[in-house]
Structures are given as C-alpha cells and as structure tokens.
Amino acid sequence: MARAGLSVDRLIAAAADLADEAGFENVTLSALARHFGVKDASLYSHVRGLADLRTRLALHAGGELIERIATAVAGRAGKDALAAFAGAYRAYALEHPGRYAATQIRIDQSLIADSPAMRRTAEITYGMLRAYGLDEPDLTDAVRLLRSTFHGYCALESTGGFGAARPVQASWDKAVEALHLALTHWPRETPGDEER
C-alpha cells in the first residue's frame, strides 16, 4: 500500500484490524509499517510511539464498544437495560478479541477525562446503575462488579474455558439474572464503612 493518504485514522483502523487478526500484543509499529509499505520512521509523524498507538487504539475500541452498548440499552431500564448492556459487551468482546483486549489496558486518567467516548461510557454505565437507586461510593463498587464479571466470563469463554455440557448462553443468562438481583438488593454504604 502506498504512503500517500496515510493518516492517524487510517493507522488506528489498520491497528484495530491487526489486533483482531493477530492479537493485541502483535500490534507494533513495524507490523503497521509493513502493512502500509512504509518505513517505521514514517509512522512517527502520526503517533509518538508504540504506547501512543496502543492508547489511541484502546480509545478507538472503547468508542466502538460504547456505541454498541448505547444502541442496545436505548429506551430500556432495570433488568432489560442490564441484559442489553451485558449482551452488547459480550458480543463485542467475542467478535473483536484484539480490540477488546485493547480496552483493558491502563490509560492515563487525563486522557480518559479528555475522551468523549470514555465520558459517554461513564454516563451510560452510571445512568443504568442509578436506575437501581445507587449513589457513590456504591456506583463505583457496582461498576467494578459488572466489569470484572463480564470480563472474566468473556475471557474464559474466548479461550474455551467452559467445558461443562450446560450451554454457555444459559450460564450467561443466569449470571445476568444474578447481577440484577445483586444490584436490586445492593448492600448500601453507610458512614464509616470505608474505614473498616
């Protein structure tokens, strides 16, 4: 592919495709330079280095993920919203394993604050959880519960980690039901709890 027309957007799109095809850990400047038929040094006019490339990829993938979730939860509340959120999350993780892996890297908090996609993620996630009557610090705890449950399930499923005969979808549906019950009967934070 020719050097002409190379841009940050094209670079990140190619990195996203490479992540899904070869794995996030194989997204390198050299691999992308080969893809575009340019020298590695040519990419430095678009990204500052590998860490910058991967951060941009993470923000890009996070934007794709929240768009899918936003579409799924639109007009829903309570258990229906939770199930739609969970289903969209799982579908993205399984369909785009490399992009999804990118969303799990640690990103500088200042970049998150400046990212419209990350702000939208917080708005949609916290909005769904507020429908359960949660406020801080319970909101943060609930977000951590959902993320760890969804991520753990998707990580195990993607590697064939569920060997029992029971359909994986049935267990997923039960997990979402259990999360709904946990959120409905959430143990509320009381003053002094954080000091224990």
Topology:
Layout (H helix, E strand, L loop, with lengths): L7 H15 L6 H8 L13 H24 L4 H18 L1 H6 L6 H6 L1 H15 L7 H21 L9 H17 L12
Produce a short descriptive summary.
This protein has 196 residues and is mainly alpha-helical. The protein has helices at 8-22, 29-36, 50-73, 78-95, 97-102, 109-114, 116-130, 138-158, 168-184.
Instruction: Classify the beta-strand content into a percent band.
Output: under 5%
What is the number of beta strands?
A: 0
Mean pLDDT: 92
What is the share of helical residues?
Answer: 55-70%
How does the major sheet shape up? none
Structural class: mainly alpha
Question: Quick one: overall form?
Answer: globular
Computed over alpha carbons, the radius of gyration is 19 Å
Helical stretch count? 9
Could you describe the 3D structure shown?
- By secondary structure, the chain is an all-alpha fold.
- The chain is built from nine helices and no strands.
- Helix 4 crosses helix 9.
- The mean pLDDT is 92.
Name the features.
globular; mainly alpha; 196 residues
